[in-house]
Amino acid sequence: MSCLFCEIVAGRIPAKMAYKDDDVVAFHDINPQAPTHVLVIPRRHIPTLDDLTEADPATIGTTLVRVARIAREQNLASDGYRVIANNGEAAGQTVFHIHFHVLGGRNFGWPPG
Ligand code: 5GP
Ligand code: ZN
User: Fold this and answer.
1) Per-residue pLDDT at 60
2) Closest CA to 9 of 93, 1, 19, 100
3) Residue 16's CB: how many other CB atoms inside 10 A?
4) Which one, 16, 42, 54, 99, has least CB within 10 Å?
5) Is the CB of 90 under 6 A from ligand 1?
6) Is residue 19 within 8 Å of residue 100, measured between CB atoms?
7) The predicted structure's pLDDT at residue 113
8) What ranges make up the beta strands (E) of 34-92?
9) What is the pTM of this model?
10) 29 within ligand 1 shell (Cβ under 6 A)
11) What was the pLDDT predicted at 75?
12) Is 32 in the pocket of ligand 1 (CB under 6 A)?
């Protein structure tokens, strides 16, 4: 079963990289919804938040700590930014490899659509 984001992690599909380390990869969304729109993913394939187990807090915790670091590196931290995880089809998840959208460079409304 192929996964688009696993292919990007492996370098078989190109993406505009924003960050990578042993645990986490971040790249710019191909269809940006804000002046800055980065996707931050664990290297490890986990389809949805619903697939997390009690063994996974380190993976997801590391990913979120990297979200904050990447937001600082993208100069989003002072103004603020939005972090979104669409989870499941009704929420609009289209790629089933856990990812956090990091959006910044504009103001955001609430509630989201
Ligand atoms: P989701 O809809 O699952 O929350 O988010 C998936 C995101 O992946 C979408 O914002 C979509 O624009 C982005 N995306 C889909 N295919 C590609 C691709 O090939 N490259 C990049 N960089 N982003 C992609
Ligand atoms: Zn994957």
Assistant:
1) 96
2) 19
3) 9
4) 54
5) no
6) no
7) 83
8) 36-42, 82-84
9) 0.98
10) yes
11) 98
12) no
- Would you state the pLDDT for residue 79? 98
Ligand nearest to the CA of 42: 2
- Distance between Cα 38 and ligand 1 center (Å): 10
Q: What whole-number distance in Å separates Cα of residue 96 and Cα of residue 98?
A: 6
Q: What is the pLDDT of residues 19-38, one digit of tens each?
A: 999 999 999 999 999 999 99
The SS3 of residue 70 is helix
Q: What stretches in the chain show pLDDT beneath 70?
A: 1
Residues annotated as catalytic are 99
Q: Any long-range contacts for 51-55 (C-beta under 8 Å, 24+ apart)?
A: 51/98
Neighbours of 75 (CB within 10 A): 12
How many residues are given for the chain? 113
Ligand 1 contact via 56 beta carbon (within 6 Å):
no
Closest by CA to 18, choosing from 71, 95, 63, is 71
Ligand found nearest the CA of 44: 2
- Ligand 1, atom nearest to 92 Cα: 2
Rounded to a whole number of angstroms, the distance between the first and last alpha carbons of the chain is 31
